[in-house]
Amino acid sequence: MAITLVNPSGLPEIDAYRQVSIASGSKLVFIAGQVAWDADGITVGEGDLAAQVEQCYLNIGTALAEVGGSFDDVAKLTVYVVDWTPDKLPLFLEGVARAATKLGVTPVPPGTLLGVAALDVPDHLVEVEATAIID
Length: 135
Description:
The model has no long low-confidence stretch (mean pLDDT 92). The chain starts with a strand and ends with a strand. The longest helix is centred in the middle third of the chain and has 18 residues, at 49-66. By secondary structure, the chain is an alpha+beta fold. It is globular and about 40 Å long. The protein has helices at residues 49-66, 89-103, and strands at residues 3-6, 20-23, 27-34, 74-82, 111-116, 126-134. The strands form 2 sheets. Strands 3-6-4-5 form a 4-stranded mixed β-sheet. A two-stranded antiparallel ribbon has the order 1-2. Strand 4, helix 2 and strand 5 (111-116) form a beta-alpha-beta unit.
């Protein structure tokens, strides 16, 4: 694998993801922000943050598979959540956990979560983009 995930001593150990990723691969892959669309462009989980997070992560897995990678090759995620408040964290983590189970990945790579006012269409609650390194 081109990515090694670690939690350095001296930084908080967060169960949901690792603080650092070390990339050693040769192919750099940037995946556009994925929303909760299925293959037909239909929104999955309208009004359901956990379901939409899960679909976004699964879409990233699909994009990675197309270029010969997997979620294990992800070095960093950036997540945008509409009207983010800390009370949404359990739903967000539920969606991540469901996707991680389906994708067979743990731990999740480092990421940044940003609250935003809106996304491309009103039905979308979350968008996730990824950077991956593939050997």
